[in-house]
């Protein structure tokens, strides 16, 4: 990681790369989302030989933001690493402490309880607890989880029957579909991304399409 950080510092140096020097936390936002999405795509498509490169692109974003922050004096990569290490140790008392758990369900329950205790005295609005940059389906799923919304196939059918042909109607149906997916233990964002990928794979490429 330190070699990557040194490369980034060189790129950000006065005699480095003009483009890299111009970047800020704000300008890098779309790249962080894009690189994470491409890593997910590599996993979903089963192309694991591409995953190291895609994860490297994600790691690049971590290094980029860390170097930008270090230059501004706000934080360093060491702060990023120490924060996540401390969090993992703190939230796994069954591994690093004396807590005994019966299985993964209790691990999740303990994680949520520890997280809630950490945030005590620092209440956040619901809108702040669900990242705005998430995909629409993923964000709806998180919102439903907070609101304890339940759904099933019948709720989707009812939504289809009742919804008007409008933006609000479509949103109502999509919300019902997300609730149905959650009840079935399916991540709607991942499911739709996989379906879209399959659709795109079946389309002719631009060159062959142009020759028809």
Concise synopsis of the structure shown:
By secondary structure, the protein is mainly alpha-helical. It has 13 helices and no strands. The protein folds into 2 domains: 2-100, Helix Hairpins, CATH 1.10.287; 126-202, Orthogonal Bundle (Helix Hairpins).
Structure overview:
This protein is mainly α. It has two domains: 2-100, Helix Hairpins (Orthogonal Bundle); 126-202, Helix Hairpins, CATH 1.10.287. It has 13 helices and no strands. The protein has helices spanning 2-12, 18-22, 29-44, 51-72, 77-90, 93-96, 104-118, 126-129, 136-147, 153-162, 167-183, 188-202, 206-211.
Strand portion: under 5%
Q: Could you please say which CATH topology of the largest domain applies here?
A: Helix Hairpins
Largest sheet: none
- Count every beta strand, where a strand is a DSSP E run of 2 or more residues: 0
Radius of gyration: 22 Å
Can you tell me the CATH class of the largest domain?
A: Mainly Alpha
Order of helices and strands: HHHHHHHHHHHHH
Give the helix tally.
Answer: 13
Per CATH, the superfamily of the largest domain is MazG-like
> Mean pLDDT, as a whole number?
90
Q: Domains counted in the coordinates: how many? A: 2
Gap from first CA to last CA: 49 Å
CATH architecture of the largest domain: Orthogonal Bundle
Q: What class would the helix/strand composition place it in?
A: mainly alpha
Low-confidence stretches: none
Q: Give the CA-based shape.
A: globular
Q: Estimate percent helicity.
A: over 70%
Domain NTP pyrophosphohydrolase MazG-like: 23-96
Protein name: Putative MazG protein
GO molecular function: nucleoside triphosphate diphosphatase activity
InterPro entries: MazG-like_dom, NTP-PPase_MazG-like_N, NTP_PyrPHydrolase_MazG
């Amino acid at each position: 990681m330190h070699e990557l950080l040194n490369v980034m510092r060189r790129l950000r140096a006065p005699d480095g790369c003009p483009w890299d020097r111009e970047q800020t936390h704000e300008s890098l936002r779309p790249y962080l989302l894009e690189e994470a999405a491409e890593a997910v795509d590599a996993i979903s498509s089963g192309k694991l030989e591409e995953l190291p490169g895609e994860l490297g692109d994600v790691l690049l974003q971590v290094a980029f933001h860390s170097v930008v922050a270090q230059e501004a004096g706000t934080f360093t990569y060491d702060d990023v690493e120490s924060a996540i290490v401390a969090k993992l140790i703190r939230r796994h008392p069954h591994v690093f402490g004396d807590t005994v758990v019966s299985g993964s369900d209790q691990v999740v329950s303990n994680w949520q309880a520890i997280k809630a205790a950490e945030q005590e005295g620092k209440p956040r609005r619901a809108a702040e607890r669900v990242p705005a940059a998430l995909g629409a389906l993923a964000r709806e799923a998180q919102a439903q989880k907070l609101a304890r919304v339940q759904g099933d196939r019948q709720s989707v059918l009812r939504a289809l029957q009742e919804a008007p042909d409008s933006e609000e109607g479509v949103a109502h149906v999509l919300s019902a579909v997300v609730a149905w997916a959650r009840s079935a233990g399916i991540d709607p964002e991942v499911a739709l991304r996989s379906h879209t990928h399959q659709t795109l794979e079946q389309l002719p490429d631009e060159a062959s399409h142009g020759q028809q």
